[in-house]
Write a structure and sequence with these properties.
alpha+beta, 57% helix, single chain, 669 residues
């Protein structure tokens, strides 16, 4: 401190001395200018005296004016004194040599002095005003500089504070904006810009409904109108934004007041809580689902009359439901239940197996599943079923076992009764089987009798008719007698065919099935060759599609195809060109085959009669037949676990369908 003062004192002295020297030089210069001005005025006056004799002090006024203008009042007065003395001694005495005290001279001098003093005073006032103006201008300039520095400093502070404010608002996860009283955006932070995907410059000046969309604005409109009345508003709602979809938000509107307590706008703070709301909804839904699941579980346990239990393996105590204790014969829940109490109820002969399974479940992480007999609290012996699952902690230690228990006494009784019934049924089945075997033997004997005893008379009738026709006397018979013989022969032949088909029909139910892999397409071609003799002389177009392989009895399925294809040939007899189509349809569980023709068809009203024995939809004279063929088809397909049906229309053809199930690999093997 001392060293600085020693250095600064000489500098101040030198500065003051320089100022004094400059001031002295200025004063000397001012008086010198005054003296020089007066001297020049006097010199010019003397030179111009012949021309300005009437106004000898005119130039001296100019000298006083110059002195006062340049030096101020003192130099002006100095010039006035010099001018007065010079005017009196040099000029006026020459003009008025006889009377130097002339009143005119005194008046002239007085007027000159007054005018000169006035000029000096006016110039001093001017100098003072100029000095003050310069000082004011200097002060104004200094203040302008200070103001510019202040404004610049304030602008820098404002910029810095705006940067700080912007950095703070941009780092916050909250959407912040300012909306004026006309509901136009004036400020948005970065989160708001990113949320809406629009730069702040594009949003500023736009109304709320232009940015948010009309639907969203209608939702927030009541809150906006409320905050513009000067009330802070907080709310949570779901808003359908124009470009963002539906969002759930938490919003705070804070009014901003002006100088006269008028609302200039409001600040907006928005938090997107869509995820929280979704989480809350998910949690609520999960809780509802859990509650419903618990209710369903409780209902299921109550409906099944099962008790549930939770065994703490560290102390062997269990929490359980009321039904659990009721199974053991207690009307209400006991204060305590342990594993040892459970074992005390188990009958001694069943206890070792129950304990062995319990220990196995603990050591092998297995299910404790057991059935045993218990003695209830009232002494009644009942059968129970139990099942438990072990739960371990992070160290692999068994801590809990959760499970169910149920009274299965009724089931055990039913099983005993069922076993007795099965034994009885097995005996009855054996007896019934023996009866069926006897009936089958009788049926075989009947079939043999039909085959021999019924055929023989019809063969005799046909033979004798043929012998009669060979006799010469038969030529003398009239037409009626010959027609009778012909009818007898045809009837005997038809009866024989009917007996053969009935025998075939009866054998279809007793013949053992022989499943093989069968190429249906080859079988169709074989049947077609057999039918060519019947179709000799006719035009038949066969359309046989590619047919898949199936599993079935070849002889039976050949009979099915022979009946269906034979019917197609027979019932297209009156068509110039017969069209017969044979194809298949592959379904998920079965393969459907069909035989379609353009024959006489049938009335669908009687379709249910097609597959019955002796059921024919066409008269004998028109189309021959016995009415047993389609019944055989149905029996064979049913034995293959398939279906059979038909579609037709009178004089517009018919289609017969039969299906064969697809066999699994195991079934085929």
């Amino acid at each position: 401190m001392t060293h600085k003062m020693r250095v600064s004192q000489p500098e101040n002295i030198f500065v003051s001395k320089r100022k004094k020297d400059a001031l002295i030089r200025e004063y000397i210069l001012q008086y010198a200018v005054a003296f020089l001005s007066v001297s020049l005025a006097v010199g010019f006056t003397l030179l111009l005296n012949p021309y300005i004799s009437a106004t000898p002090g005119a130039l001296l006024f100019a000298a006083v004016m110059v002195s006062a203008w340049y030096g101020g009042l003192a130099p002006g007065l100095f010039a006035t004194v010099l001018s007065t003395l010079t005017l009196y001694n040099l000029l006026l005495k020459q003009l008025y040599p006889t009377n130097t005290t002339n009143l005119n001279i005194l008046v002239s001098l007085a007027v000159f002095i007054l005018a000169a003093v006035l000029i000096s005073s006016l110039n001093e006032s001017r100098r003072t005003a100029q000095r003050k103006a310069e000082e004011s201008l200097k002060f104004l300039h200094e203040n302008q500089v200070k103001f510019d520095r202040f404004v610049q400093s304030n602008e820098e502070i404002l910029r810095r504070r705006e940067t700080e404010f912007r950095s703070i608002t941009d780092t916050l996860p909250v959407l912040i904006s300012f909306v004026d009283s006309q509901q136009r955006y004036r400020f948005n932070n970065r989160a708001y810009e990113e949320w809406f995907g629009q730069p702040a410059t594009e949003v500023y000046g736009k109304h709320l409904w232009e940015v948010l969309g009309e639907s969203a604005y209608q939702v927030i409109r009541p809150y906006v109108e409320q905050v513009l009345t000067g009330v802070q508003v907080s709310f949570e709602t779901e808003i359908p934004y124009k470009n963002l979809g539906t969002r759930y938000i938490n919003a705070i509107y804070v009014p901003q007041f002006g100088q006269h307590e008028t609302v200039e706008g409001f600040a907006v703070l928005i938090t997107d809580i869509s995820q929280q709301q979704a989480a809350l909804r998910d949690r609520f839904l999960a809780q509802e689902a859990l509650r419903e699941s618990e209710e369903r579980l409780r209902f299921a346990l109550q409906s099944a009359e099962l008790g549930d239990w939770d065994l703490d393996l560290t102390n062997q105590t269990a929490r359980r439901s009321l039904r659990h204790d009721q199974i053991f014969g207690y009307e209400s829940l006991l204060p305590e239940w342990t594993y040892e109490m459970f074992l005390e109820h188990v009958l001694p002969e069943d206890r070792p197996l129950v304990q062995a399974k319990f220990l196995s479940a603990l050591t092998n992480n297995d299910i404790w599943d057991f059935e045993c007999r218990i003695r209830r609290a009232d002494g009644e012996i009942r059968w129970i079923w139990g099942r438990g699952h072990v739960y371990y902690n992070e160290r692999g230690e068994a801590r809990r076992m959760l499970g169910l228990i149920g009274d299965i006494s009724d089931r055990k009784l039913a099983e005993t009764q069922l076993q007795q019934l099965n034994e009885t049924l097995e005996q009855r089945i054996q007896e019934r089987t023996a009866q069926l075997e006897a009936a089958n033997k009788e049926l075989e004997s009947f079939s043999y009798s039909v085959s021999h005893d019924l055929r023989a008379p019809f063969r005799h009738i046909a033979g004798f008719v043929e012998l009669l026709n060979k006799q010469p006397s038969s030529r003398n018979l009239d037409e009626t007698s010959q027609r009778y013989l012909k009818i007898i022969a045809q009837t005997a032949k038809q009866a024989g065919v009917l007996i053969d088909e009935l025998l075939t029909f009866s054998r279809m139910g007793r013949t053992e099935m022989r499943y093989v892999s069968l190429n249906i397409e080859e079988l169709v071609q074989e049947v077609k060759r057999d039918l060519l003799a019947e179709a000799e002389g006719r035009v038949i177009n066969w359309h046989i599609q590619s047919l898949p392989q199936v599993q079935g009895d070849p002889s039976m399925l050949r009979l099915v195809l022979h009946n269906l294809m034979g019917n197609a040939v027979k019932y297209t007899r009156n068509r110039p060109t017969a069209e017969i189509i044979i194809g298949s349809i592959d379904n998920q569980n079965e393969i459907i085959f069909f035989v379609q023709d353009n024959g006489v068809g049938f009335n669908m009203q009687y379709a249910h009669k097609l597959f019955g024995v002796f059921q024919r939809l066409h008269s004998d004279p028109e189309f021959e037949g016995t009415g047993v063929g389609l019944a055989n088809v149905q029996r064979i397909i049913h034995r293959h676990n398939g279906r059979v049906w038909a579609e037709g229309k009178i004089d517009d053809g018919a289609t017969f369908y039969f299906s064969l199930p697809k066999l699994s690999k195991k079934e085929r093997e």
